[in-house]
Amino acid sequence: MAMKVAICIPSYGDTKADFTISLARLLVRSLTAPGAPRLEIETFLATSSDLVANRTNLLQRAMAWQARYLLWLDADHIFPPDALLRLIGRRLPVVGCNYPRRSEPTGPVASRMGEDGQYAHVWTTEAKAKAGEVEEVAVSGLGFCLMDMLIFRDVQAHLGAGWATWAPFDRKRVPSTNARMGEDASFFAELRAAGVTVHVDHALSWQIGHIGERVFTNADAEAERAAFAARPA
Length: 233
Prior knowledge:
By secondary structure, the protein is α/β, with parallel strands linked by helices. 33% of the residues lie in helices and 22% in strands. It has one domain: Spore Coat Polysaccharide Biosynthesis Protein SpsA, Chain A (Alpha-Beta Complex), CATH 3.90.550. The protein is built from nine helices and twelve strands. A seven-stranded mixed β-sheet has the order 2-1-3-9-5-10-8. A three-stranded antiparallel β-sheet has the order 4-11-12.
C-alpha cells in the first residue's frame, strides 16, 4: 500500500516560478526514485491573505484525506528534488528546514529555548551541513517542514475535550510582552506542550533558498550573522 503524503501550500497570490519548477522536480523524483518508498501524493492549496486560516484549512484537509505525512511548503522557496525523500528517511515526528528569512540582513527561522526561558537563534552553518547534523529545536519555520501525522494522536490525548476546538495556528502572546508569536511559533508551542519534538535537517537546510528580491541561502545567513544579531529589536 502506498504511503499518503499531503503537500500543503498556503499562498497569497501567485506562486513563484522557481518554486513551481522545484515542486515539479520534487514530485517526479519522489514518485520515481529507485528504491524509494511507494508514495501517493496529493497537493492542497489555500489562497488568501489570512495565513492562519490557510494553514488551518490545509491541516484539516490533510487529516480528512487521511495522510500519513504532511509536507508544508511555502510558495516562495526553492529546494532539491530529493528533499521529501530525505526528510521521510529521517523518521522523525517533525523535521524541517532552517531556511533564511526574506530580509536584509538575513538570519535563521529556527530557535532553541535557552535555560533562561528565552529563545536563541539556531544557525545552519556549512560545517553543520557537511556533517549531516540534525538538531532539535523549539521553533522552526513551516516553509519547508515534514510532519508525521501520527503526532496528532499525542496532541489529541494531551488536549482531551479541547481537541474539538483546537486552534493551533492562532497567534499567542509572547510571555511577558505584548507581542504575538507567528502562526508557526504558536503551532510548534502547541506540539511541544503535547510532548512532540521538532528537528531541523542542516544538510537539507543548506540547499533551501528563500525567494525575495534575491534568493536567500544559509550561506548568506552565516555571512550576515553579526549584522543580523546587531539589528534593532
